[in-house]
Amino acid sequence: MSQPAHFFREAGLLLTATIPRGVLRVFCAKSRVVKAPNRVLCDLCASLLLKVTSSVIMSRTADYEAKTESLLEPIAAKFNVTIYDVEYLKEGSDYILRAYIDKEGGVSINDCEAVSRALSDILDENDFIADAYILEVSSPGLGRQLKKDKHLKKSIGEEVEIKTYKPLAVSGLKPAKEFSGTLKSFDSEKIIIETEDNEIEDKEMIFNRGDIATVRLKFEFKN
Asked: Domain containing 196 — which CATH number?
């Protein structure tokens, strides 16, 4: 089944992208022909191709993740686990559909195997993912990534590690891409942590969420 078309208008031109069975095709309004992305587009449409591709992939990914999580909910309830996260991504040449499950005291290999078998069966029945993919079910781990607001809310007061896309000068420190501290608060625009470093005068570090690549719980091995 084809994914919904994505439309972009600029300078009076229309660029349309669809993904029939996972193959991106682009309609160039200026030349009035359908082209694959490896064909030459007119200059204006070519400048929009990156926007189209990114939007289509993000929309498809979000759709796959949402549908998978919906199918996983009754399975998680049956096996007494909770859904931590679902992600669909490409690693190397492989597409991965990864479900993270959790429960009080931690999940076991048997929990992951049972959920994986049940989820695999129902995904085969629904068959809404166009790509060939690998299904993985696992624990989020001790140094779990805090991707969603529900993860951040549950981790208030915990030690976290923040990595940014580019070096930032925060609280008078030299520009860096890695920071750690206690998660104090967050909203739709920023995340605030507090450091215990005595050499830093301003203990509160404020980050724009758009600058953050990852936030993880800080995990240190103890001897």
From this structure: 2.30.30.100
One-letter amino acid of 50: L
| Residue 112 forms part of a structural domain | yes
Tokens describing residue 15: 């660029």
Say if 144 falls within a structural domain.
no
What are the start-end ranges of the H helices in 79-192?
109-126, 149-154
179 and 110, same structural domain? no
Secondary structure (3-state) at 195? coil
- Sequence-ordered list of residues with C-beta below 8 angstroms from that of 86, at least 6 positions apart, any chain: 65, 68, 69, 72, 97, 98, 99, 100
How many independent structural domains does the chain possess? 3
* Of 138, 160, 193, the domain-final residue: 138
- Rounded CA-CA distance 123/142 in Å is 28
Contact of 57 with 49, CB cutoff 8 Å: no
Give the predicted TM-score (pTM) of the model. 0.65
Residue type, 83: I
- The helix (run of H) or strand (run of E) holding residue 103 is none
Contact 175, 169 (CB under 8 A): yes
193 closest CA partner among 201, 208, 204: 204
pLDDT at site 55: 60
Q: Quote the longest CA-to-CA distance of the chain.
A: 67
Confidence at residue 209, expressed as pLDDT on a 0 to 100 scale = 93
pLDDT at position 23:
45
The rounded average pLDDT for each run of 10 residues, N- to C-terminus, in the chain (223 residues) is 43 44 49 47 53 64 92 96 92 92 90 95 93 92 87 93 91 85 94 81 86 88 52
Q: Name the residue range of residue 159's domain.
A: 149-217
